[in-house]
Amino acid sequence: MALPQIFSSFKYSDSLIIVAISLCTVIVCEAISWPLIYRINSYKSRSSIDKAAKKLETMKTESLKESSRDLSLFKFKSGVVVALVLFVFFGLRVFTTTQRQL
Question: Least CB-packed of 1, 4, 21, 61 within 10 Å?
């Protein structure tokens, strides 16, 4: 990796490497979120949001709990994808660091 060699002469080289890795991770996570969340027709459609708002007002406690569970499941799936990306990025960083030390 040429990146650590470039930053090795700077005083805050480790900090700059961490910031660069964080920025790369953010870009990858947003690139994953874009097709999984923002490109879905139900997300784009304003009328479906209005219908969902009206439906939410008329829901009773049980149906609200079901909707909350469904939303939590969807957020969990997104969180798993983000966690896997972070494990890969930081795992590669640790792997390359340990390879250099050997």
Answer: 61
Q: Which of 20, 94, 7 is nearest to 28 (CA)?
A: 20
Report yes or no on 2 lying in a domain.
no
* Dihedral angle, C-alpha 13, 15, 85, 94, nearest 10 °: 60
How far is the C-alpha of 51 from the C-alpha of 34, rounded, in Å?
23
Does the pTM of the predicted model rise above 0.70?
no
Residue 102 confidence (pLDDT): 63
Domain carrying residue 36: 12-100
- Give tens-digit pLDDT for 14-58: 888 889 999 999 999 999 888 887 777 766 666 677 777 777 777
Longest CA–CA separation in the chain, Å:
64
